[in-house]
Amino acid sequence: MPIDATKPYDPSNIFARILRGEIPSKRIYEDDHALAFHDINPQAPVHILVIPKGAYVSWDDFSERGSDEEIAGFIRAVGKVARDMGLVARGYRLLANIGRLAGQEVPHLHVHIFGGQPLGPMLGR
Ligand code: 5GP
Description:
Elements: H1 14-19, E1 27-30, E2 34-38, E3 46-52, H2 59-65, H3 68-84, E4 92-95, H4 99-102, E5 111-115
Antiparallel strand pairs: 1-2, 2-3, 3-5, 4-5
This protein binds guanosine-5'-monophosphate.
Guanosine-5'-monophosphate (5GP) binds at residues 14, 25, 37-41, 97, 103-106.
Pfam family, one: HIT
Domain HIT: 14-124
Keywords: Hydrolase
């Protein structure tokens, strides 16, 4: 069920629980501002999720309330993971679903990184 991205942050969401170490994840990278881990239901040979450590529902929420340091840290982490996972030469795709029309399921901002195969048209049409 897609979430309403205008609602306040819910600290019981699954990614908040992953951040707190309450449920396991296959972690790839972590620093002060971001955590990257493998998606539990991969849609491509490489399917990684990168999340900020702060409590933000969406990209627009993060861009409004996040500090410059948090935002820079998160953006740098996404690029570092792409480089470290060897995705740059062949190419990869970033995707952030926000709210109902995009089908966002988890109300903690996340960027999907897809790679490892041709990724098809942008909107799957
Ligand atoms: P969204 O549709 O919100 O953009 O994407 C949520 C993603 O989170 C989905 O790709 C889904 O497979 C992934 N996901 C949901 N629950 C878990 C979990 O417990 N662990 C991991 N690693 N990924 C999850």
